[in-house]
Amino acid sequence: MFDIGATELLLVAIVALVIIGPKDLPLAMRTAGRWIGQIRGMTKHFRVGIDAMIRDAEIEEQEKEWAARNEKIMRDHPEGAPAEAAESAKPASDAPVMKPLPADSAAPDQPSGVENSDEPVPDGAQPEADASPASPAKPADKGDRS
Predict the structure, then answer these.
(1) Which candidate in 81, 89, 110, 128 could, as Cys together with 85 as Cys, close a disulfide (CB 3.0–4.6 Å)?
(2) 97 CB contacts (<8 Å, ≥6 apart)?
(3) Can you tell me the mean pLDDT for 24-28?
(4) How confident is the model at residue 106 (pLDDT cuts 50, 70, 90)?
């Protein structure tokens, strides 16, 4: 930044030692360090403020651009569906119409002995197709092993 080399820094340190003296030099260096810290803090605060103003200006510019695009889209596509889309949504008069099954009939993919239940099956559970198990479970032996 200031392009101060090692020889210039050494010269400034020797002049400060001679003028200020060895007794007051630590106090003078501490004071100079505090001033430099305060200057750095002020420049950082200034830089953050400038960045925030730039960011706000960019956001405002983008919002204006988005509002203009939205206005154009709303102008091109007014509220409600266009006539073409509304006509294509109507069923054709010669198209077959599906009728719902009666509530008491079973679904075609289920056997006639299984009732159609509207209750959801919990995760991991199997719907019961038959009340009797395929093979009865054997009771565990709790007797003595000899």
Answers:
(1) 81
(2) 91
(3) 91
(4) low
The CA–CA distances, whole Å, from 127 to 87, 105, 109, 118, 121 equal: 44, 19, 15, 12, 7
CA distances from 115 to 51, 94, 120, 133, 134 (A): 69, 35, 14, 18, 20
| CA 44 – CA 9 distance, rounded (Å) | 26
Mean pLDDT of the chain: 76
What pLDDT, on a 0 to 100 scale, did the predictor assign at position 64?
96
Tokens 């009797």 correspond to what residue? 132
Q: Which two tokens stand for residue 69?
A: 């695009």
Q: What is the C-alpha to C-alpha distance for residues 107 and 112, in angstroms, rounded to an integer?
A: 9
- Counting beta carbons within 10 angstroms of the beta carbon of residue 5, is it exposed (0 to 12), middle (13 to 18) or buried (19 or more)? exposed
And the tokens for 130?
A: 């038959």
pLDDT of residue 45: 97
Determine the average pLDDT of the residues in 127-132. 52
What's the rounded Cα separation, in Å, for the pair 53 and 62?
14
Residue type, 92: A
